[in-house]
Amino acid sequence: MAAKDIVIAQLTRTSLFAELAADDLMACAAAFGEMRFAKGQTIFARGDRGTHLYLVENGRVRLSVSASSERKLSFRHAGPGDLFGEVAALDGGPRSADATAITAVTAHGLERNAFRALWSERPALAARVVTLLCGRLRETTTQFEVVALLPLQMRLARFLLSALAGRSAPPGKRVPLDLGFSQGELSQFLGASRPKVNAAMSGLEKAGAIGRTLDRVFCDPVKLAEIAARAADG
Fold first, then answer.
1. Is beta strand 105-111 parallel, antiparallel or unpaired with respect to 83-84?
2. What are phi and psi for residue 17, nearest 5 degrees?
3. Quick check: 176 and 191 in contact, CB under 8 A?
4. Could you tell me which of 97, 62, 78, 95 has the C-alpha nearest to residue 10?
5. What is the distance of C-alpha 121 from the center of its chain?
6. Would you list the domain boundaries of the chain?
7. How distant is the alpha carbon of residue 179 from its chain centre?
8. Is the separation of the CB atoms in 158 and 229 below 8 Å?
9. Per-residue pLDDT tens digits of the chain, which is 234 residues long
């Protein structure tokens, strides 16, 4: 499949570009250029000027903020088909977070001026930009509320349910889940130390909500939902 066709296929699955007419979608896809990043490479750092928005083709990117010189809080992971870096690319302001390649990453970048030209000339895209920014604000607000207010085991249950993306299992069975990143990465995402995350994992295991092997987690969506619901009920 040609690079442009790959970009078009992935753009149709994003909230920003999905509902565009075919000619708008093709014009947007043509403006993206392929970029590659090595595992561990900084794609951009907080304070950098926002020059591009990115669409991930393969790999995973961590978006994080530093609470101190030694502690980071990951608030989002971008995987295949996800966009990131769009806010600073819209206003040209400084990046508000760090973006780091957790794995080797193939992405497609859209330069800020090209992006502005597209949404200035195409009203349907401009309307999607407003919707996207509102959605990002809601997601970030919810993420920080969860970290600040909910017990760790409940945050972990919610995270695993989100990672399952609606997958279910027959009664008495569990759904295998490959998280795709280390427990250290999970700790940063949940805003807790590795020992505390491991203890929360053990708690879910004792409750029968998960099982673990060296490289995979096996989840019981029903039991995880029960534990996550306790948080909603207070």
1. unpaired
2. -110, -10
3. no
4. 78
5. 29
6. 3-148, 150-232
7. 12
8. no
9. 677 788 999 999 888 898 899 999 999 999 999 999 999 999 999 999 999 999 999 998 988 887 555 566 677 788 898 999 988 888 888 898 899 998 999 999 999 999 999 988 999 998 888 887 777 777 666 665 655 567 888 888 888 887 787 777 777 778 888 776 677 778 877 778 888 988 999 999 999 999 988 778 899 988 898 898 874 444
CB 199 within 8 A of CB 186: no
Q: Compute the C-alpha angle 90/7/189, nearest 5°.
A: 60
Just give the CATH number of 3-148. Answer: 2.60.120.10
Please report, to the nearest 10 degrees, the dihedral formed by the alpha carbons of residues 156, 161, 164, 165 taken in order.
Answer: -130
Tokens of 156: 């972990």
Edge to edge, what strands does the sheet with 72-78 contain?
42-44, 98-101, 61-66, 72-78
Domain 150-232 class in CATH:
mainly alpha
